[in-house]
What does this fold into?
Amino acid sequence: MPSKVYDVIIIGAGLSGLASAVLLSEAGKSVCVLEARTTPGGRIRSVLEPGTNKCLADLGPTWVWPMFQPVISSWLDKLNLSSFPQYETGNAVIDNGPDQNVQQIPLPGQQGSMRIEGGSQALVDALVNKLPKETIICRSKVSSVNQESDGSICIETETKDNSKFYSKKLIVAVPPRIAKNTINWIPALPTALSNAMDMMPTWMSPHAKIAAIYDRPFWRENGLSGRIVGRTGPIVEGHDHCSEDGNVAAIWGFIGWPHDMRLAHSNALKDQVNKQLKRCFGEEPKSIIIEDWSQDAHVTSPDDLMIPMQHPSVGSDSLRQGYFDNSVWFAGAETAQRSPGLIEGALDAANQTVKSLIISS
It folds into this structure.
């Protein structure tokens, strides 16, 4: 056994894992975060301009609703971050498909939707900056979790030397289905928990998002909000995605083609998006970025691709309990009781899980 046994190890450096690490560190706990990817952030995926790191677009979670989400408001204040309203002034474009005329009509706005200044990446960066430099260890995919005879937890990773880490407590902050299907649990997870993890879909897993970058937001000059409603796709929903100061001009949206159709026509997808945007706004973007979450093994399990796209509802209480003598806990957007699947859900899960973990210690 190595000389250091952490108070808490966290699996996953997504939003919930990072927020949990910050709260535990502030409570005086020694913390290690193991992340399978090369960088922290999880499903937060911001496109950064090379050389400046200026956020061009968010291809993961984008919106927050501070007026309805007190957890978001609290964390934005804590991290000294600000938000600005989603731009919705002007008509929406209704795209009826190729060889059809588009319509420009007013549509109701989405009350209270806000974006974080600097993109969602600003949340990740602010959380990382609150942690000691050595806290997060990337390229460390967890392969097994073993509760030792003395009650400590041994976590083995898929690294060149199969590194092992030890802790008194563990927080699992990756999607429940990923944690269930990719980690060898010794002893086995209780049946009720295992079933609850199987039943909880991972938010965004079947989705693909696009960001189209322009030189300027010319659609605003033409009385358009940047909103797209696509009848045939590929984009079925689009929105203005410019920075608050207008220095970044972009349209952001969801691809409506199912994951198998996207995969079968991957070579044509970007071209079809380009044609649709020109149909809607009269100009082609200078670049298009597509993020297909269904192809991300850190997010999407085979079960997630067997069901229609849907937003997760509040899951079983089994997902929010301590296991193995309260040494193992689960946190993440899908385990939340408040706003499951959303940014607030990830942060609220961190709040509640850390509180329960500390009380049980």
